[in-house]
Amino acid sequence: MLKILKRNIESLHDPLTPEQIVEISPPWKNDIEKFSPWESTAGGDYLTAGKQLESGIIVAGECCSTFDLADRLIGESELDEWESVIAVSQRAGRGRRKSHWISPPGNLYVSLVLPEIPAEWQTLASLLSGFCLSEGLNQLGCETAVKWPNDILQNRKKVAGILIEQKAGQTVVGVGINLINRPENQQLEGPGAFPAGCLWESAGRAVEPVSLWDFLVKRFKKLYYGYTDGGTVENFIDTVQPQLEFIEEEVMILEAGEVEATRAVFSGINSSGFARFLIDGQPKILRDAKILPD
Amino acid sequence: MTDKSFNKVLEEIQGKKILVANRGITARRIIRSIRDQFKAAPVLTVTDKDTTAPFTTGAKELMLLGKNPHAYLELDRIIKLAKSEGISAIHPGWGFAAEDHEFPRKCREAGMIFIGPPAEAMQKLGNKVSAREIAKKIGVPIVPGTDNSISIDEARAEVEKLGLPVMLKAEGGGGGRGMYEVFDEEQLEDAFQKASMLAESSFGNPRIYVEKLLTDIRHIEIQVVADQHGNAFAFDERDCSVQRHHQKLIEITPSPWSGMTEELRNRLKEYSIKLIQEAGYHSLATVEFLVDPEGNPYLIEVNTRLQVEHGITECRYGVDLVEEQIAIAYGAELRFNEEETKPFHHAFQVRVNCEDPQDDFSPNSGVINRYLSPAGPGIRLDSCITTGYEFPSVYDSAAALLISYGKNWEKTLGIMNRALNEYIISGVKTTINFHKKTINHPDFRAGEFTTSFVDDTPELMDYTDMEPEALRLSRLVAEISAHGYNPYVSLDEYRGTEDKRIGRFKPVLPEPEEGDEGIYPRDDREALLEFLRDTDYVHFTDTTPRDITQSNSGNRFRLAEDRLVGPLLDRCGFFSIENAGGAHFHVAMLANMTYPFTEGYEWNQFAPRTPKQILVRSTNLLGYKPQPKNMMELTGGMICEHYDVVRCFDFLNHIENMQPIADVVMRSEKNIFEPAVSLSWATGFDVKHYMKIVDSIVQMTAKVSGLSEKQARRKIILGLKDMAGVCPPRFISSLVKAVKERYPDIIVHYHRHCTDGLFVPSVGAAAAAGADIVDTGMSAAVRWYGQGDVLATAAYMEGELGLETNLNKDALRATNFLLKQIMPYFDRYAAPWFQGPDYDVTRHGMPGGATSSSQEGAMKQGYIHLLPYILDFLALTRKVVRYHDVTPGSQITWNTAFLAVTSAYKRGGTAEVKFLLDTLKTVTTVPEEQLSSQVKKERLAIYRDSNDAFRDLLLGEYGRLPLGFPPDWVYKSAFGDNYKHALNNRTESSPLEKLEPIAIDKERSALAKQLDREPTEEELVIYLNHPGDALKTIRFQEKFGDPNNLPVDVWFEGLPEGEQLEFFDANDKPHLLKIIAIDEPDERGYQLVRYNLDSETFEYQVKTEEPTVGADIGIEMAESDNPYHVAAPCNGDLWVTYVHPGVVVEEGDEIFNVSIMKQEKAVNAPTDGIVERVLKSADYQKDRKMVPVKEGELIVELAPLPNSCPNCDCHITDKDYDYCPSCGKKL
């Protein structure tokens, strides 16, 4: 399914016509043309694409946040498992603990509805999501790696962020990928924020958000079930641990609630997905710590 | 006539039971009037929560209503119970069901008297619409506008008529909701549409009506009373303009506003009485008006009950309104009339609520652990709290009503100010400080305030809620005493309450002497330097307050001890007292929670004669990492304020690193810059080598000051710093001679440690060779680290070397005498291991203080058997990688040695270690060309386990190594395969070059955010240098006050039971503290400490042990089958809570969110209800703190929805109502 949301939802969604989308965000041109003609549905709420997709994608205009829009659509039974909402831009994109995710047009902002996470994977879900996404990007020729807990880095710069929001009976993964824009260092929040990068620095490369996400979500689903259905938590950890950015390296970390950074060696993760560090030669397991950039 | 009627009622009521269907302040107020003259029996309704509350004491009987906290609204039940108890009359108080017209009706039907108006009259005047109609009818002005809803066209016409600005109001709204302000003609259409749409979705009713928007208004009300015989009386106005969100905070009678004329007053009274009479009303009522700046009044509503602020009217007139209300209910004739009832006092009331004004007036609950109420002339207090009372969260936040009354407005202001200062409520946050700010605001005092005063005056929130210092310090003493040692000093638990302690500190202070003038000029660099050049005797610097007392984990002198010793040191004739810098700066905060620059300031107060000296590192100054120039200016500036001599060292003698701080200090005419050469004694580090460094120092100072070398060297002092104390007397002698030969006019200052035991001869040799100033320590404090003894050194110089000194030996003796009484406390808490001098330091090179603590560290990690090997490694490695062992060099060396030896040990035991050392020995003795390839391979193991700091050193990140880079194999060993990269990237430039300036303003904001207030300049500087320890110190002092007000014995050991302590606070006020008892730890691990502070008794709980009964003590688990219990869904961190007690939630509303591993779980309300308890709350966005929670832990408890509107307390008669009929709030 592929459609553009026409409906204006006060403070949640300002719709854009296909022409407006291209005007605001030229990288969308190819996709808009590729999937045209866009025709109004019977109810008038959507414009369905001329060419359909296997994955279910709803394209939104300017959102306050795809999380909120997804919530609303789920509530109205418009969005199912493995279906996504992509926004052209977000006014109030959010990251961890309601910090701000800068979302100008040109990058990819998606919320993907996941099925219920099995019990033993609960604390690993965000790490798993990171891997599924990173693998997908790598198959396209990028060289990304996951930094614990689930930031996606390329050349040690953060190119994508993932956040999982869970409410009664629903799990939504929010993904923000810097395709061609990245925020300046001053704009980044929080002490020790990793510098931002984007996947394709030169705007010359054609970037088609819908096609890209279609590819990524199919890969994501395959890997997700591959790990969760096809294997155990231990298998997953054994496979992915060596691929984690900074594995076995000395890093500076900021523990939760601390002001000064500590030197530590990142030794990997445990079966709950918590990080294992060596601090002054002593092993320590931390659930909440931030690996700082150089 | 009237008196007789009242007396008749007195007879009638006597002995009868009168029920007060209320709680809190209201209840107590009414009960008092029931007792005063009527001698009736007050009966009080109480829910289980209120049965033992302070306000129940006056009641004769209690009517138990059971568990439900909202039972005060169950009218039918109350009336039924009342009837069966034989209640004669019921008083509804204010709030709850006081304005529910069913109440009087039901009372009447049950044959009881309702103390209030009759049902019909209450309904007529209580209903807003009905009141407006009556008002219109009788010519009482109301807020102009349409009475009914209108269309957009009609609205336009109305706006034409009324003029802008107007308010669009939702017909279904109320209580301040559903209102749109329109200031512009163009806005109207849009606003009307929006207002209509919003009204539709909020109230289900899109109809809008228009009212004139009154701005700049005052809230003026008239208290009226009428009897059942048609008599009515109106009192002078109450000005209630000081409000917030329509909640009154301060009420005043008469209004201090200049626009309140006699004419307006009479007009308002007239209107009020007419309204009452038209509605056939009797009992008490208050008619509320809004008055515009021109003095035009507009009726808003009528309150058909006794009001919170009635007390000020009672004070103004000297009457009892409640008594009158009761009498009237029983048919008495009104006793008030124009002739006899006259006003003579001014009065005003502040509402003391358990709310935090700085946090949006959010309600507080908790145990009130201290309560001292104000009294004296002109004070009236109506409260419902007392010490020990647990203020509940489930009712309103009113704790007390404080009224002051007096002859005029100024007098009442003065009395209130005094009373607010007397009023102490601890354990919950209250509005007391807010009121203090408000009543002292000039606009308030001038009567120039409208209803927007609180919102428009943010400076009312500018206050600090801090308890008096003596009280805070007493808690610290309680904590230390319960533990038996001080848990904040970062010491280990060397002693506890069971061990023999040194006991009370009762120092014998030497006789105070007549002060001479100080010998050495201060605040004048030239004068001080000239003085040194003009004198022939040897000058001394005392390092007791710094270098001797900073390293060992127990001998960190505090400012408190400095205050005792400093004045004595001041008279000894020292050139300078080294009282700051080095580790002392950091340790002052880490262990003693003292502000370092405040300490510096005080030193110059109690020891004004002697110049002060500070030690700083070239790149880091006083901080934990290299500082950019702009930060150095800030830190350097503050340093120059308090310290005359600034000694600067660089562990690599990379002189370029000293430039920035040299620049700052040399610019000042008052301060002397003392660049110091770091000294070690080994091949390559010979006199020739050091002379080159001295040359570069002279060159650098010339460059920085823009003077010639000849001039520049006369403006500084040259320091020679042998910080491990390894250079023998003959060496230092030749070095000093060489310096003096090349630069005869440069002042030389020699510093040496005493660990090797050769302090006296070395210092003597230096002085004999021409050193002008030497560092020594006070005999009583001398140990095996730091400097040697001043008296012995002086005696050696005078007796054996024929040199002269100018010390005041008597003063030295007196100082030592005092120190001997202080040192036992520090010795007791010094680390007991590895004590004593150690000549081996010349071999391994670790400075004295570091040796003992490092070796102790190794021992504690179980490596004591490896110590000899580590020391061997130290001796050898310094021949490979050459630099000087002073901070941070000494740490780097030690860590390298430690890591190398322990890692080797882990790999292959002692054999491996010995092999490693053999290799290292070979490498240092056999020339490179003769080494076998086998050895070349094996030597790569030597540095392979080194850490980042060592590697950074090799890369030149700290600066240029004094003898150049070590050989390439060292890099290969330390960096492994990457080593070529290291070789290519190493640098010899100063690490300060690459530093970006810091954004000082950004840091200041970050600090302000952490502290919740603007930081002082000192706080900013110490935060920039050591953020973690600075925050620790600031917060510690906010919590406990200045710990230097406690003597050293209490600081280390606490106060035993029965002992008394006298101490002084910051204002020099004396206080007396006595511990009465310290209980044994309970099952949670807490000990209760009971003590007297200045004749008040306090109790304080101190956690000294881990709980014995399971680790989850203190966590309440949710009941799984209880629909009102909302639990944490998993182990994780609570980062945001959306509700607080009293908030109404609907099923599915998100109430809090738990985060784990970048997954955020929203937790929703399982059912409709009202939030009763919030056990844990968080607001990460605001304070960056998260609260760990366990799966299944109870976080929020809900209660079923009450039958009244949570916003306005109006009784909801129909369960199907979605919106409150009175204020429109969604239910």
Care to describe what's here?
The complex is a heterodimer of chains A (294) and B (1227). By secondary structure, chain A is of the alpha+beta class. Chain A has helices at 18-24, 29-34, 66-75, 125-139, 209-228, 233-240, and strands spanning 2-5, 13-14, 39-40, 46-48, 56-63, 83-90, 108-114, 144-147, 151-154, 157-167, 170-177, 250-255, 262-269, 275-279, 282-286, 289-291. In chain A, 22% of the residues lie in helices and 30% in strands. In chain A, strands 1, 2, 3, 4, 5, 6, 7, 8, 9, 10 and 11 form an 11-stranded mixed sheet that branches. In chain A, strands 15-14-13-12-16 form a 5-stranded antiparallel sheet, with no helix packed on it. In chain A, strand 13 (262-269) and strand 14 form a beta hairpin. In chain A, helix 4 crosses helix 5. Chain A is globular. By secondary structure, chain B is α/β, with parallel strands linked by helices. In chain B, strands 9, 10, 11, 12, 13, 14, 15, 20 and 22 form a 9-stranded antiparallel sheet that branches. Chain B has an 8-stranded parallel β-barrel with strand order 24-25-26-27-28-29-30-31, surrounded by 8 helices. In chain B, strands 3-2-1-4-5 form a 5-stranded parallel sheet. In chain B, 48% of the residues are buried. Chain A binds chain B through residues 96-98, 122-127, 149-150, 162-168, 250, 256-260, 263, 273-274, 287-288, and chain B through 624, 947-948, 1027-1028, 1031, 1130, 1133, 1135-1136, 1148, 1150, 1155-1162, 1164, 1180-1181, 1185-1186.
Output the keywords.
heterodimer; A: 294 residues; alpha+beta; BirA Bifunctional Protein, domain 2; SH3 type barrels; eleven-stranded mixed sheet; five-stranded antiparallel sheet; 22% helix; globular; B: 1227 residues; alpha/beta; Rossmann fold; Dna Ligase, domain 1; 8 domains; 42 helices; 37% helix
